[in-house]
C-alpha cells in the first residue's frame, strides 16, 4: 500500500532534526514503521508548515514521489537496547520532485482523511486513489480525453535464477490505468458506511478501519465510456466488485441497499445487465473453467 513519508525542513524546537534524511536518496525512520516501509512501495513526500529560514507556509504540502529501495538497520543502533529504540534507513529510488508542491488542503477539503492520532506520524499509509489524486495535481499523470491515464515504464527485476541457473532477464512494462474521481468515491463510501450495497457486508481491517470499494456500473474507458458520476457508482465489497467487473452477477435495483443521498442510474444497471453481463458469459463459455 502506498505511503506518505514526512520530511520537514524544520521542526518545533528542533525535536526531530536528528533524523539523517537525504531527500530523494535515503530516509531515516524509527523501528515503529519497520513493517510499513518495505522495498518496492510507492510513496509521496510530505512536509509541514515550518520552512527553512523561519518562514511558514499556508498549508502542509506534498512535494515529491518515489519508491522505497533497499532497507537496512542504522549502524548506530545499540543491539543490547530494546528493539523499539532502534532505527532504520531506506534507499529512495525513482524520485521525482514536483514542479509545484501540492497543498494538503484544497477548496477547504484535505486530500487525506487523517485521524487525529495519525496526523503526527512520520510514516502513514494512503490508498492508491489518494496517491493518484496527488500525482494528478502534481501533473505527473497526463490527461487523455474525458479521463486521466498514467503511463510509465516499470522495470521488474526478478532476482531468482532460471532452471539452468542463469539470471532471469529484466523486463520493461508500460502500464496505463484510469484515474477516477477519488473524492467522489470516498464520499459515497462514507455515505454508505463502507457497507456493500449488494450484500450489506463491510470488511473490517486489523487496525479497526472499515474497507469498501467503488464500482463503476457502466465501466469507464473504451468500449463502454461510462460516466464518472455518483449515479454510475456502487459501493461494494471486494468479492462483489470482482463479480461485477467480470459480468458474474445480475444487478437488481430493488435488491440494492439504497441511501436517499445516492440515486443509482437505471440506465447504468440496464447497461450492466445487457452488455457487461453478456460479455462475461461469453468469456466464460469461450475459455472454459479453471480449477
Please write the CATH class name of the largest domain.
Alpha Beta
Which CATH architecture of the largest domain?
A: Roll
Number of domains: 3
In DSSP terms (H or I, runs of 4 or more residues), the helix count works out at 4
Average pLDDT reading:
79
As residue ranges, the low-confidence spans are 142-163, 171-179, 283-291
What is the strand content?
25-35%
Structural class: alpha+beta
The proportion of residues forming helix, as a percent range, comes to: 10-25%
Order of helices and strands: EEEEEEEEHEEEHEEEEHH
Word description of this protein:
The chain is α+β, with helices and mostly antiparallel strands and 291 residues long. The protein has three domains: 140 residues, Roll (ph1033 like fold), CATH 3.10.590.10; 37 residues, no CATH class; 111 residues, no CATH class. 17% of the residues lie in helices and 30% in strands. It has four helices and 15 strands. The chain has a six-stranded mixed beta sheet with strand order 2-5-4-3-1-8. The chain has a three-stranded antiparallel beta sheet with strand order 9-10-11. A two-stranded antiparallel sheet has the order 6-7.
Describe the structure concisely for a colleague:
The protein is α+β, with helices and mostly antiparallel strands and 291 residues long.
Amino acid at each position: 500500500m502506498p505511503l506518505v513519508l514526512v520530511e520537514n525542513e524544520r521542526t518545533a524546537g528542533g525535536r526531530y532534526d536528528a533524523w539523517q534524511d537525504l531527500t530523494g536518496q535515503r530516509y531515516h525512520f524509527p523501528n515503529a514503521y519497520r513493517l510499513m516501509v518495505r522495498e518496492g512501495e510507492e510513496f509521496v513526500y510530505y512536509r509541514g508548515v515550518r520552512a527553512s529560514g523561519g518562514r511558514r507556509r499556508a498549508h502542509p504540502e506534498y512535494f515529491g514521489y518515489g519508491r522505497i529501495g533497499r532497507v537496512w538497520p542504522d549502524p548506530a543502533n545499540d543491539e543490547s537496547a530494546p528493539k523499539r529504540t532502534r532505527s532504520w534507513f531506506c534507499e529512495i529510488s525513482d524520485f521525482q520532485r514536483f514542479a509545484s508542491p501540492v497543498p494538503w488542503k484544497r477548496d477547504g477539503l484535505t486530500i487525506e482523511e487523517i485521524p487525529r492520532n495519525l496526523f503526527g506520524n512520520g510514516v502513514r499509509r494512503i490508498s492508491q486513489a489518494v496517491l493518484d489524486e496527488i500525482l494528478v495535481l502534481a501533473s505527473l499523470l497526463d490527461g487523455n480525453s474525458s479521463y486521466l491515464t498514467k503511463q510509465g515504464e516499470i522495470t521488474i527485476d526478478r532476482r531468482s535464477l532460471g532452471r539452468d541457473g542463469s539470471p532471469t532477464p529484466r523486463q520493461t512494462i508500460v502500464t496505463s490505468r484510469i484515474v477516477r474521481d477519488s473524492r467522489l468515491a470516498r464520499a459515497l463510501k462514507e455515505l454508505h458506511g463502507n457497507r456493500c450495497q449488494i450484500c450489506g457486508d463491510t470488511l473490517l481491517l486489523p487496525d479497526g478501519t472499515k474497507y469498501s470499494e467503488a464500482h463503476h456500473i457502466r465501466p469507464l474507458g473504451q468500449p463502454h465510456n461510462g460516466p464518472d458520476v455518483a449515479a454510475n457508482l456502487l459501493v461494494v465489497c471486494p468479492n462483489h466488485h470482482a463479480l461485477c467487473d467480470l459480468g458474474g452477477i445480475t444487478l437488481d435495483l430493488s435488491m440494492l441497499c439504497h441511501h436517499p443521498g445516492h440515486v443509482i442510474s437505471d440506465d447504468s444497471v440496464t447497461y450492466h445487465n445487457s452488455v457487461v453481463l453478456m460479455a462475461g458469459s461469453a468469456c466464460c463459455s469461450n475459455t472454459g473453467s479453471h480449477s
